[in-house]
User: Fold this.
Amino acid sequence: MTLPTLSVVIPHYNHGRYVRQAVEAMRAQSLRPLEILLVDDASTDGSGPLLNDLAAADPVVKVFHNDRNRGVGYTANRGLSLCRGDYVYMAAADDLVLPGFFGTALALAQQYPRAGLVYGQLALADEAGTVQKVFGVSAWQTARFATPQQFLRQHLEAEDPAHSLCGATIYQRAALQALGGYRTELGHWMDTFVARAIGLRYGVCYVPEPFMKWRYSEQGFCGSSRWEELVRVVKRAAVLMRSQPFCQWFPESHVAWWERASLDNLFRARVEQERPLLRRWGGSGGFRSRVARWCIKALARLAEQKWERTETKAA
Assistant:
């Protein structure tokens, strides 16, 4: 039986030093994709000729250019509108797929066609490409199909609220398009949100082996988000989860837990940044802990008030 087809979309902006390696890793897969769509978001690093060379070397590679810089969300959605495969992999131009990813994922997709997505483990690497840590689903040690309820209880609620394996995920294109693609207002969390919505609607397939190498950088799309923006993303995501049509897949009990746990993590991380200041204040460890807890609560109140003011102005 013929395997489903796969389109790869690569939103590209100023990653000329990495993109050739990323494309070559995809071309070297045991199961080659139907197409690799490079969508350039008006890069300023002079990488245009390089992208054209990649397309000239292989008809599978196609290059599209935005008329001006429009951001990752717009660029990803444009690529989604152009692709033709049964499944789609939304890649980053500075990341690297690992051997066997596409073939393994599509074989499982063929076995469980009702699953809205297939994903595996993600290897976190530094800018030099050296793997620092591998992330996966702790509860799942064998390849499987998981129902929406299993996905909720055994993955989403068993891992850190920020846990995401989207870099190692292929989506049913029809399922991704049915949910409206990527929500640009969610910034770096737009792929994680739609992946969770698809999984809670259709179920998922998972393979406990590394599918890709994610090159993390403080200057990258995920690493560059400011603290205040991260808080806004959490609040926007919670509003979306409670809205139509998503509220039928995201239980309110889960949304309430996820929102509070996500904000608590952000507030704690923000206080941790000020730990040297707390040490300079002196006092016992217990005193510093009480101060830290007070700071977390104060940050929470300020964030809630700022969010409410922003929403009031928008309305």
Remarks:
- The longest strand covers residues 204-215.
- The chain has a mean pLDDT of 88.
- The two ends are 53 Å apart (CA to CA).
